[in-house]
């Protein structure tokens, strides 16, 4: 009798454990949307903790205007592709967030996967076409179909550390510089003598913030229109990369190996760089870093051969094709692109709002810095080359170009190998 | 014949029904664990095998391609390079790691003061997250401000880009790998040592055997089953090395190609590039290699492992 009782107790325990296991599965599913109690529940998938307050303010405003809708924010970190891995898994299981952030790099594969809702009509019926630059809207258009509402964009600027310039007795950089001026300024700093371990500038192997800008300004190209061939073999492309390698060789930048360990951003934040290029997404980091916040400022990216050269990247709000409340989700996504929503986002000063009339809020929210440098020529900026195999292409590029940056190979040889492998990849 | 008669007797039937009851209960008891095993290991494994014969998109749409993924693997020089790096990692870390673990276990098996403190210290790396360990070591090795270079410079030497130089980076990672696993192996070996009967040592002492003779003639032979276990698990985890490298080596690191292991390649193909079918085939290849090595060891153990 007693033995049976024990058995029974253990059995019960086993069931409880089993149930807990299943319950664990259930709750981790997440992202489910349903209509309960007459209210439409939507989820908004995002990846940036810095932007959570802005997104919460947007949700609050939307819920106030639409009492029958509640929106839940679902944050997954971007680091290590966690956001994308989870999004892909949940989309496969039919449980992706109804509206989610999508960046330009992932548009092709997500369109290919068929998980993005067609927003063409909704966008055409809204005031979005009249209030956004064509480049930004077209970033999310494939075969004439709109797949996202532009949310924000990022461009680059030249940042400098006033303390280092003052100590060296060199004039600050200005908005009207070109590449040669930048080099001259760096040489001047070098001649004036900087502290041990401090460099005038940095040239990491970085496409978006460094060499794509000069490659495009120089008339070079990376990827042709139908993504069948790469332009690494062109002399004009190589010149736009070589100009940065020259600065490393002249000792104006730390070696590529050193920058692989300690990023240019980290060095600049540590007061070890007089100048640095940085995307607009770095502004909250610099402004929030007490060690440098008062000592730094920014100017426009130097021109190259007289051509404005800035790279533009950004993200948009996409709607999940499998959403149970697709219409409500589309309505919400379109609202997120409205004047009101873009103002709320812009005033937090964390990102540059994509809507033309809301771009100014970025500079206004951080009056201590010359942030107009980011938006002055945004309309002339180059979008990143993207295709279905972009992730692989960028990895190949960084592997081969690193060899040229370290001096292991000449840039010409590295580009030759890179072109062979990259073209083979595109042909696959 | 007589035995058969006993077996068919009435008592047997009773035992049978009771046995049956026990079986059912036993199955229910192991159900939670088995269910977890099936859901999280066995089913994904079967799915993985199926994926390896398909081209699988990011969103798990599978198209059957037969052996194409495996054919591609044999043509992919990156697979062979990463396998080479992995093999190098295993060949260096396993023997050195096991040697050190035995050495430390022997030291801690003796009667010195504060053994439990030492045991805890050596075991600490094993209970620390690999990601945290990697971040700390990354700073230690840093060319510009790492403590290792500071010490070398302090002694009048020259600094070195430990993790960015293609010839040293993988060895530096091995060092971290060994440092992380030695404690765990040591604890297992220590338990093995303490399971050896005192009487062997007493007998040896009477016969006049010294400490070293006792160690090599008694401890090591009696410890071979434990060493065998540690060897198998170390080789398997060596082949699967991933987290330390993932955390320590960035894509623009000049030593990138010299440090990519086959599991790193698997991860990139599956999650960065979205080639889940190809990645599945790579993982099956890793599985096959590990199984082959383990089978060889299972056969080979008869020659050196001593079961009392």
Biggest chain-to-chain interface with counts: A-B, 43 and 35 residues
Distance between the termini of chain A: 70 Å
Could you say which overall geometry of chain B the principal axes of the C-alpha atoms support? Answer: globular
CATH superfamily of the largest domain in chain B: MetI-like
Overall body shape of chain A: globular
Q: Determine the fraction of residues in helical runs of chain A and give it as a percent range.
A: 40-55%
Task: State the strand order across the main sheet of chain B.
Answer: 1-2
Overall number of structural domains of chain B:
2
Radius of gyration of chain B, taken over Cα atoms and rounded to an integer in Å: 25 Å
Structural class of chain A: alpha+beta
Largest sheet of chain B: 2 strands, antiparallel
Query: Which blocks of ≥5 consecutive residues of chain A have pLDDT under 50?
Result: 20-35
Number of helices of chain B: 14
Secondary structure: elements and pairs:
The complex is a heterodimer of chains A (428) and B (308).
Chain A: H1 2-29, E1 35-36, E2 39-46, H2 52-65, E3 69-75, H3 82-92, E4 99-103, H4 107-112, H5 120-125, H6 128-131, H7 134-138, E5 141-142, E6 145-146, E7 149-154, E8 156-161, H8 162-168, H9 179-192, H10 207-217, H11 235-249, H12 256-261, H13 264-269, E9 275-279, H14 283-287, E10 296-300, E11 311-319, H15 326-336, H16 339-347, E12 352-353, H17 360-365, H18 372-375, E13 382-383, H19 390-405, H20 411-427
Parallel strand pairs in A: 2-3, 2-4, 11-13
Antiparallel strand pairs in A: 1-2, 4-11, 5-6, 7-11, 7-12, 8-9, 8-10
Helix pairs in contact in A: 10-11, 19-20
Chain B: H1 2-7, H2 10-51, E1 54-56, E2 62-64, H3 68-75, H4 77-109, H5 115-127, H6 130-141, H7 147-154, H8 169-194, H9 198-206, H10 211-239, H11 243-248, H12 256-259, H13 262-272, H14 276-304
Antiparallel strand pairs in B: 1-2
Helix pairs in contact in B: 3-14, 4-8, 4-10, 4-13, 5-8, 8-10, 10-14, 13-14
């Amino acid at each position: 009798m007693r033995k049976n009782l024990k058995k029974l107790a253990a059995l019960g325990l086993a069931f409880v454990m089993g149930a807990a296991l299943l319950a664990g599965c259930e709750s981790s599913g997440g992202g489910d949307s349903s209509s309960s109690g007459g209210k439409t529940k939507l989820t908004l998938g995002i990846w940036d903790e810095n932007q959570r307050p802005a997104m919460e303010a947007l949700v609050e405003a939307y819920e106030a205007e639409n009492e029958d809708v509640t929106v839940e924010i679902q944050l997954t970190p971007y680091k290590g592709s966690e956001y994308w891995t989870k999004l892909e898994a949940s989309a496969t299981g039919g449980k992706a967030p109804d509206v989610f952030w999508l960046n330009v790099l992932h548009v092709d594969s997500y369109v290919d996967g068929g998980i993005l809702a067609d927003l063409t009509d909704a966008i055409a019926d809204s005031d979005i076409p009249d209030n956004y630059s064509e480049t930004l809207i077209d970033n999310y258009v494939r075969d004439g179909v709109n797949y996202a509402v532009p949310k924000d964009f990022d461009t680059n600027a030249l940042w400098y550390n006033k303390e280092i310039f003052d100590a060296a007795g060199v004039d600050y950089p200005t908005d009207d510089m070109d590449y040669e001026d930048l080099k001259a300024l760096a040489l001047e700093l070098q001649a004036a003598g900087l502290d041990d371990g401090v460099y005038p500038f940095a040239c990491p192997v970085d496409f978006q913030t460094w060499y794509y800008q000069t490659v495009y300004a120089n008339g070079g190209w990376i990827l042709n229109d139908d993504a069948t061939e790469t332009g690494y073999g062109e002399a004009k492309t190589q010149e736009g990369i070589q100009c940065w390698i020259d600065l490393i060789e002249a000792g104006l930048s730390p070696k590529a190996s050193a920058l692989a360990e300690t990023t240019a951003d980290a060095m600049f934040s540590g007061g070890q760089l007089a100048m640095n290029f940085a995307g607009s997404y770095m502004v909250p980091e610099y402004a929030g870093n007490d060690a440098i916040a008062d000592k730094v400022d920014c100017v426009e990216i130097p021109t190259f051969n007289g051509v404005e050269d800035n790279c533009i990247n950004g993200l948009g709000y996409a709607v999940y094709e499998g959403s149970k409340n697709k219409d409500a989700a589309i309505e919400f996504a379109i609202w997120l692109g409205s004047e009101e929503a873009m103002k709320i986002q812009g005033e937090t000063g964390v990102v540059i709002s994509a809507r033309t009339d809301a771009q100014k809020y970025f500079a206004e929210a951080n009056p201590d810095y010359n942030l107009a440098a980011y938006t002055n020529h945004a309309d002339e900026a180059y979008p990143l080359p993207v295709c279905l195999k972009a992730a692989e292409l960028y990895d190949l590029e960084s592997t081969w170009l690193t060899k040229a940056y370290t001096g292991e190979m000449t840039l010409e040889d590295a580009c030759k190998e890179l072109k062979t492998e990259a073209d083979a990849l595109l042909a696959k | 014949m007589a035995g058969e008669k006993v077996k068919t007797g009435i008592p047997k039937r009773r035992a049978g029904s009771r046995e049956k009851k026990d079986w059912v209960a036993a199955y229910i008891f192991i159900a939670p664990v088995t269910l977890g095993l099936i859901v999280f290991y066995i089913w994904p494994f079967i799915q993985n095998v199926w994926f390896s014969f398909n081209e699988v998109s990011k969103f798990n749409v599978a198209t059957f391609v037969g052996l194409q993924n495996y054919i591609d693997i044999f043509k992919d020089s990156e697979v062979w390079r990463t396998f080479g790096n992995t093999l190098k990692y295993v060949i260096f870390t396993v023997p050195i790691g096991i040697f050190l673990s035995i050495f430390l276990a022997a030291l801690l098996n003796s009667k010195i003061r504060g053994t439990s403190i030492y045991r805890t210290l050596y075991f600490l790396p094993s209970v620390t997250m690999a990601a945290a360990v990697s971040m700390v070591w990354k700073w230690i090795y840093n060319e510009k401000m790492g403590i290792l270079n500071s010490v070398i410079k302090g002694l009048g030497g020259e600094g070195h880009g430990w993790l960015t130089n293609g010839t040293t980076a993988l060895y530096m990672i091995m060092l971290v790998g060994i440092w992380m696993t030695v404690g765990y192996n040591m604890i297992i070996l220590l338990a093995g040592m303490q399971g050896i009967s005192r009487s062997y040592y007493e007998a040896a002492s009477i016969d006049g055997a010294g400490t070293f003779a006792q160690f090599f003639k008694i401890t090591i032979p009696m410890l071979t089953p434990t060493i065998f276990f540690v060897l198998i698990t170390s080789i398997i985890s060596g082949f699967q090395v991933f987290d330390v490298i993932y955390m320590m080596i960035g894509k623009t690191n000049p030593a990138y190609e010299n440090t990519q292991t086959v599991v790193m390649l698997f991860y990139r193909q599956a999650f960065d590039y979205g080639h889940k079918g190809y990645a599945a085939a790579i993982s099956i290849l890793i599985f096959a290699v590990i199984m082959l090595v383990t089978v060889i060891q299972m056969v080979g153990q008869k020659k050196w492992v001593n079961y009392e």
